[in-house]
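Submission sheet (multi-component)
Chains listed below:
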Amino acid sequence: MKQFWSSMLKSPSGVIGLIILLLAVGIALFGPMLFPNSPWRMVQRPFLPPFTLSTVPLGTDALGRDVFAGMIFGARVSLLVGLVSTLVALVVGIPIGAMAGYFGGRVDDALMRFTEFFQTIPSFALAIVLVAILQPSIYSIVASIALVSWPPVARLVRGEVLSLRTREYVQAAIVTGQSNSWIILREILPNALSPVIVLASLMVATAILLESSLSFLGLGDPNLISWGYMVGAGRTVIRQAWWITVFPGVAILISVLGLNLIGEGLNDALNPRLSREGR
Amino acid sequence: MPKRVLLGLLLACGLAAPALAQEPKTGGVINAVIQPEPPGLMLALVQNGPTQMVSGNIFEGLLRYSPKLEPQPELAESWSVSADAKTYTFKLRKGVTWHDGKPFTAADVLFSIEMLKQTHARARTNLAQVDKVEAPDDYTVVFTLKQPFGPFLGIFEVGSMPMVPKHLYEGTDWKTNPYNNAPVGTGPFMFKEWQKGSFIRLVKNPNYYEKGKPYLDEIYWQIIPDAAARSVAYETGKVDVLPGGSVENFDVPRLSKLKDTCVTGAGWEFFSPLAWLWLNNRQGPLADKRVRQAVMYAIDRDFAKDVIWNGLGKVATGPSASTIKYYTDDVKKYPYDPAKAKALLKEAGYKGEKIRLLPLAYGETWQRWGEAVKQNLQDVGMNIETIATDVAGGNQKIGDWDYDIAFTYLYQYGDPALGVGRNYISSNIAKGQVFNNVEGYSNPEIDKLFADGAVATPDSKRKEIYEKAQKILVEDVPVAWMLELQFPTITRCKVKNLITTAIGVNDGFKDAWLDK
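Outcome: structure written.
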């Protein structure tokens, strides 16, 4: 673990990514306490440009709502959707991949055909259809993002398990009569986790983008403010008021970038062959 | 805008003020946007908004309506009503010809009425009280009603009852008649050509019965499918007239600020779209009158008007728009007063039960409005959950009474008997349909007032009945009235006199002229 942190902190991209993520999480957790104004409340005259009033530093939108408050509260929704939908995708994808890789044969065939069924449909199109059918709400959005993002997890885990399964320590465990679930959970999965963790960090970024795209198209939860919603709502007035779209857009950019940097750092730290110095 | 409204009003009342009156100039071509492309131009068969807008300048009705909805002569020169209010006699204008040169006579009127009864749903309803129509001579038409029907003089507008040429339609299959594609009317402009997806071209009727009119030589109705492209077409000078609703609301302020641009909200008085929130009177907290009143106090309707509708429109005072007959503002007032709303909620014992809000899925403006209303209601302590839906899904939910609060707007058609009563009388509660009494308000007194009002005579009696009905309704708040909507018409200021009637651009080119 110590070695992991030291190599993680040696990679500059990992450090920058971590700082960005910590900042974003901090804003999401504590921001609403520091700035208790609801982002939906109309506080000032509409279309107030940024940096004119200290109470609304980033200006106001078409209804006179505080863009800064929207950014703070939007961080919460964006990160929450990103993290939860990734967790759900992992919870679905890891067991399916592990079973397919471990048992092989017909189980593998059946599970992989099932996975391919989801992979053949363009994920964003599927997400739009799902949210439209289920009616937009935070639950349907998380569910549909998770549903379109678990197949890569399953395939990755399956590949790892396939290769680990032939290792001698696994063979030994089988010979000693360990149960299948014990072998999968205690022997194989811990060793297959590092690529999954890297993938997961990138999936969080993708999920944030997906949620933003859905909200941009008007398929966000109408009761929650999110960055994508702000961009979508401000898009039509971009010629009069650039700040309504630009600030949340930058927020999406930075947080997705940060997560990608973390993914890169994790990859360096968790993959010993690549992280060796002098490569 | 006020100047143009004033101008329109003065001209309509025949009080042309010397300072404003200019001698109209003849000649010129106008490019106007028509959005969306109409499905057809035969007004007796198709009544979509864009069809009415184009064809209202080709066809004519017996009457025209001033912005105050007073009937004015068009194809009918004069009219008289019998003492028992059951016989209406119209004297037709002489010397009127169809665009193909044949004279217009009472036979055309009789034929049009027969045809419209089969092809025009609203005309059929409007004519339901008519017992018989006769033509004692070529220039007289007599309507005999089954019983007195107060709003009768309000049903002769061109879109409601266009006159159709008998000699071209009698005995033919109306739906496949070749003249549907090249309509022949009596109006100031004649149909010339229609390049599908591109433009519709109308040219001046040289034999128009009002000498000197129309002033313009040609009208090009440009068809531009994309909203942003329509705004750009105006900015670059490709078009001079943007009728109400043809550009997005948020583009209106920007376009209004352009040089030589005039904006007006006038020209919708006949339709008088009134926006309100359906409140489900049957169940939940909103079944309590005090909660419904709290909704009225809690919503900042001036904000909605100034910010969401860019200052156009008017805060509604009750079930009637101020432009329609027998309107009174002598009713209970509901100013923006959150404190009072809170007090009423407390008195009603509201304890934060969840209330579902259905915005109208008609785009940007309505979505923003839904958000603002939600915030207003939350500010007084109501627990509002917005339900996202599309137009069809929203209609279904409202029709199935599966909502608590829902946005809508409806046309009023000039008379409470035609456009207002239908939303409040209990005989109009029909599950599965929208645009009736979906709020489930049921009050025998209101039922009786609207039933009496439709057939009462004389006018002063109707006025009394409808004013009473308005007072009761505003006290009961069956729905929460928001705004009288105005759809701004944007024109170059050189386009003069375009909007002088209650239907605006729909029959406005008769009087319009270009100040070159």
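Remark: The interface with chain B takes residues 38, 40-42, 46, 62-64, 135-137, 218-219, 221-223, 233, 236-237, 239-240 of chain A (CB under 8 Å).
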